[in-house]
């Protein structure tokens, strides 16, 4: 189930910022994205060419359409553009979430987690919020916000509107802290002041942490810094990608000089001055278009998934950081982040009611020709027509006897690789089935004049050894899944051959006959209920395995090769039978 | 590199259709999404509440901003709303792509692959294209389109505008074929007529295929139906999730009755009447909001990635089908598809310049406490201070001798599990290194009065057996990656201990000393260049492995458990040394 998240922001035609960045970020977090557009921009990586605002009435209508139909678990607001749209957003949200009489004032608790990114000016200098709207944003939106996420420029602008310090430029961690604390007086539950424009080193972070700790020491509230995410702490410092305690070997391997590394530092203040500092290395990159939109959207997505504010901010800063670090060059100016860095495309489609076997379907489709050559082999066709030379069938039976020993041993390896009693039991049951089959096999052989002694004495053909030893190799080389796939070509193939022959028997032109066919029992064995049940069980195991532990693209390719090899070895087994090869 | 795709369409606030569906679909295909908005809608799963159109000038401006900055590899158009916006789209695209004098007429070849989804009316009955705009869409947009993707209702409307058949309802595959052929006269390069509103069974598909084949037979152009995607064919039929040739076992396992299964059939016609039929089971679902938007966006994304039109349409129909089949209920009406069904979130972040070891960082962070208990064990601290009782160190040395045998054997299993000469060689080199170390080990033991004979005679402690046998079990149970992780706690831990002790020695208050410490050589061995180089190589192998074959969430959890267990067994090894346990 994807939690639904709402962004209320501008549209960036070039896709790197605004609701586009938000929707991509929501998708990257597995959330369902909805969006209310306050203004269209004609924009690209070089700047904002023009803005086309939505009417405040239409902003309200969009909000109503979304919140009245869909259960929204987190909201973020971005570019609101002007005073009327600011008001419209606040009114529509209050109207929906505070409709009970006790909550008319718009108390925070009535809203889903709401992240207000107070977007004012674009990186390229374009006004994204009219100056006279700042006061409305502060008075109307901040009080309903779980968190506001200004950068230092926005913080200066907001603080100056309320005659709060620092009036001068915010250019150090100390002035960031003062600014963040003063922003806390403006009504939001928490403040994240983003330090992307401030230069800092590890020594600055340590100094800030020490001064924060001594403050709390003074008030008898000291807690350890850099603790592992517990929310009891008053002061926490997260150093991301900076190789903390007991990570000397990683630092040594990386080889960088920690002390001189330029850092980006964000400061989060929650109620009662609980302070969290997020430090990470600065990445020299021009792919920073939409960084702020992305961060606030990621915080909203993480909160929608139930994370605490600190964990949500921490995850979001890491997500955004990697998005910058892995971005490809797009456009001619400040390009977008890579929003999809944490996603992989599944190699196997999800199971649906109409196809419970998507993985097996893919395997067969990927090696369709060799699979067909196996299932519709001349050996099989002649067997179906009853024209197969008995000597060939007997040769096949003898070699199959040898093969079944490998097959049973491979299942023993599978049992040894299993970690639950269910899977140990299921592999073991197959061994027992094979051993019981051996008696039938012997009786069947006797029917064709082959004694038990002759069976044992038979020289093993190359095809048998190749196939059998390959199964054992798969058991040695890989994990349980790989061995299951190696064993699949035999299990499925004989089942398919059985059903295919039975279907051919319905078409007179195929020449396949059942009545009077001396190989009828063989056909009935593999098309019969018992064997087909085993096939069904095997299919279920392999599909469940592929769904529970979806393979990466490279692992999927490896699995396809294993399947193809197994199918090929099966086909060669028929060749061997037909050509009486050793 | 993500190919950039542009959608020109309306905005759906509820996120299931319009540019929102398109952006999600682009993201699901790993494409970079850009979007030009022709109109905002206040919309949810129950219907369209209102529309707020963009001005045609602003539509043009958005298109210019995108195409002049970003290299667009495919375009899709959706809801265009009115005549002026239709014209604006056509003009802006022509202006950019046909600016050379030879191409003023707007010939198709000048454009990136362009998919025109001729959205006219919403499922809920809301007008999304003014009736008087249909002619403009036909005359201006169809000629620049690689493909148009009407449903049967839209096809009827479009055909009636040009007085083309069928004038009556399109309600059979035969009438669909006539409609699709007539749509081909309107200027697009290809037509995909979507049969979501037409009821069909497998017999209908077979009849259609037969009649198509006999047409081509008549004209001497017969090609096999249902061939494996070759583009040479004149007629192709894809049966998705319908268990084709040699898939009897899947059909048997599924158990459904193929003949009575209700199908959805789409018909694609390309130049010269090359016809492809896409059939799949109909899913009974109300999660169909935005199906058309999603399909055309998926076709555009697939073409952006270089697929042929047939392959792009085939992939897109499968993607959309599974999107319906796996949708969760969102909203109170016709809910959106699951756009993210083919994505999963990576458990390990991508490697970046500032953190080349994201996987190892995560492993350490996930078991931080036990890792710290291992690295900063009392045994280690006492060893660093030189206060460790010699008898404890000797006990440790003897057991380490036993352990190294297991360690070497585990690397032998690793070699046996490797498939390249590089990885076979690297594992084998480690075995050779261990065997050479054994001599140093013996000399070191002699220094503490332990003879070689005593070393061999020593009883193996439980901690040694547990750790050693566990390593071998990991080698038996899992694949190469799992064994590598099992071996990692030892390799990294001793390196970390060496560096940690050296760092402590710089802090007088730690009590750790190097000068005159009788265990100095041990410390120097593990903090020394040779061992640290081995650590660096090991880190590189494990990170490359995790990046090349990213683990699924369940596999990642399994790996974390393996790491934690290895770390715990290391910690218990120190316990054993300190407590002189057997």
Automatic annotation (TrEMBL), chains A, B:
<dbReference type="GO" id="GO:0008902">
    <property type="term" value="F:hydroxymethylpyrimidine kinase activity"/>
</dbReference>
<dbReference type="Pfam" id="PF03070">
    <property type="entry name" value="TENA_THI-4"/>
</dbReference>
<feature type="domain" description="Pyridoxamine kinase/Phosphomethylpyrimidine kinase">
    <location>
        <begin position="255"/>
        <end position="338"/>
    </location>
</feature>
<protein>
    <recommendedName>
        <fullName>Phosphomethylpyrimidine kinase</fullName>
    </recommendedName>
</protein>
<feature type="domain" description="Thiaminase-2/PQQC">
    <location>
        <begin position="366"/>
        <end position="579"/>
    </location>
</feature>
<dbReference type="InterPro" id="IPR013749">
    <property type="entry name" value="PM/HMP-P_kinase-1"/>
</dbReference>
<dbReference type="InterPro" id="IPR004305">
    <property type="entry name" value="Thiaminase-2/PQQC"/>
</dbReference>
<dbReference type="GO" id="GO:0009228">
    <property type="term" value="P:thiamine biosynthetic process"/>
</dbReference>
<dbReference type="Pfam" id="PF08543">
    <property type="entry name" value="Phos_pyr_kin"/>
</dbReference>
<dbReference type="InterPro" id="IPR029056">
    <property type="entry name" value="Ribokinase-like"/>
</dbReference>
<dbReference type="GO" id="GO:0008972">
    <property type="term" value="F:phosphomethylpyrimidine kinase activity"/>
</dbReference>
<feature type="domain" description="Pyridoxamine kinase/Phosphomethylpyrimidine kinase">
    <location>
        <begin position="12"/>
        <end position="210"/>
    </location>
</feature>
<dbReference type="InterPro" id="IPR016084">
    <property type="entry name" value="Haem_Oase-like_multi-hlx"/>
</dbReference>
<dbReference type="InterPro" id="IPR004399">
    <property type="entry name" value="HMP/HMP-P_kinase_dom"/>
</dbReference>
<dbReference type="GO" id="GO:0005829">
    <property type="term" value="C:cytosol"/>
</dbReference>
């Amino acid at each position: 189930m994807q939690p639904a998240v709402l962004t209320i922001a501008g549209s960036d035609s070039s896709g790197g910022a605004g609701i586009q960045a938000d929707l991509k970020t929501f998708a990257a977090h597995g959330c369902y994205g909805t969006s209310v557009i306050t203004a269209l921009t004609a924009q690209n990586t070089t700047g904002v060419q023009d803005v086309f605002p939505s009417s405040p009435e239409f902003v309200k209508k969009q909000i109503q359409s979304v919140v009245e139909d869909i259960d929204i678990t987190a909201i973020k607001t971005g570019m609101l553009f002007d005073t009327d749209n600011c008001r419209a957003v606040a009114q529509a949200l209050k109207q929906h979430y505070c409709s009970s009489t006790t909550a008319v004032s718009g108390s925070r608790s009535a809203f889903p987690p709401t992240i207000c990114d107070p977007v004012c000016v674009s990186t390229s200098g374009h006004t994204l919020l009219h100056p006279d709207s700042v006061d409305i944003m502060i008075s109307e939106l901040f009080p309903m916000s779980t968190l506001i996420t200004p950068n230092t420029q926005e913080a200066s602008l907001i603080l100056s509107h309320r005659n709060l310090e620092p009036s001068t430029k915010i250019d150090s961690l100390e002035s960031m802290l003062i600014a963040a604390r003063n922003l806390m007086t403006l009504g939001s539950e928490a403040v994240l002041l983003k330090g992307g424009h401030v230069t800092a080193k590890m020594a600055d972070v340590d100094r800030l942490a020490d001064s924060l700790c001594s403050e709390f020491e003074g008030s008898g509230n000291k807690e350890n810094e850099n603790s592992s995410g517990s929310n009891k702490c008053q002061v926490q410092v997260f150093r991301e990608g900076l190789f903390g305690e007991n990570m000397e070997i990683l630092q040594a391997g990386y080889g960088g000089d920690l002390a001189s590394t330029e850092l980006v530092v964000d400061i989060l203040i929650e109620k009662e001055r609980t302070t969290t500092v997020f430090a990470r290395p600065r990445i020299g990159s021009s792919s920073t278009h939409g960084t702020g939109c992305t961060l606030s959207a990621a915080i909203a997505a993480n909160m929608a998934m139930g994370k605490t504010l600190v964990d949500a901010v921490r995850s979001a800063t890491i997500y955004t950081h990697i998005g910058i670090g892995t971005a490809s060059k797009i456009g001619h100016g400040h390009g977008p982040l890579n929003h999809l860095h944490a996603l992989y495309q599944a190699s196997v489609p999800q199971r649906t009611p109409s196809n419970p076997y998507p993985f097996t379907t893919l395997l067969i489709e990927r090696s369709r020709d060799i699979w067909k050559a196996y299932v519709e082999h001349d050996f099989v066709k002649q067997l179906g027509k009853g024209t197969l030379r008995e000597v060939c069938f007997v040769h096949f039976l003898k070699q199959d006897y040898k093969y079944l020993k490998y097959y049973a041993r491979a299942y023993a390896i599978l049992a040894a690789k299993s970690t639950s009693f269910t899977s140990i039991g299921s592999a073991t049951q197959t061994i027992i089935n094979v051993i019981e089959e051996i008696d039938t096999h012997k009786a069947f052989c006797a029917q064709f004049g082959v004694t038990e002694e002759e069976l044992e004495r038979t020289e093993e053909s190359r095809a048998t050894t190749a196939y059998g030893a390959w199964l054992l190799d798969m058991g040695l080389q890989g994990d349980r899944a790989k061995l299951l796939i190696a064993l699949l070509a035999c299990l499925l193939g004989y089942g398919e051959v059985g059903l295919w022959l039975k279907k051919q028997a319905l078409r007179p032109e195929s020449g396949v006959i059942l009545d009077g066919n001396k190989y009828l029992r063989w056909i009935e064995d593999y098309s019969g209920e018992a064997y087909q049940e085993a096939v069904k069980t095997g299919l279920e195991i392999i599909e469940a395995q592929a769904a529970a532990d979806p393979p990466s693209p490279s692992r999927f390719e490896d699995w396809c090769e294993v399947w193809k090899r197994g199918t090929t070895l099966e086909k060669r087994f028929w060749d061997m039978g037909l050509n009486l090869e050793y």
